[in-house]
Design a protein that fits this description.
mainly alpha; 4 helices; 62% helix; 0% strand
Length: 101
């Protein structure tokens, strides 16, 4: 049986966009820096995901989960900063102007 179109049109569609679901690759201004830019972007995506989970744990009042996600946030941001320190300023500026930052 085929569904009736009128029923399909009435069905609400909820679209959620997560930053990690969006394939976002920044192209480095200098190709030799592309690997480091990719690493920075990947660690920044991880940080954003962990930060979201930390905020949820904080909202729920779960201190154990908050501490877990806080540790992961700190590690991810430290790794991001480590790779960022190896890039020239123009590449850093490009990453900081992106949607992820």
């Amino acid at each position: 049986m085929r569904p009736e179109w009128s029923k399909l049109e009435e069905t609400p569609v909820i679209v959620k966009q997560n930053l990690n679901e969006i394939i976002m690759n920044l192209i480095a201004k200098n190709p030799k820096h592309q690997t480091m830019v990719n690493r920075c972007v990947n660690w920044l995506k991880k940080y954003n995901e962990y930060n979201t989970q930390r905020d949820i744990a904080d909202g729920n009042g779960d201190e154990k989960q908050y501490a877990k996600w806080d540790k992961k946030c700190i590690k991810a941001f430290d790794m991001y900063l480590e790779y960022l320190s190896e890039l020239p300023k123009r590449e850093v500026t490009q990453i900081e102007k992106s949607e992820l930052y």
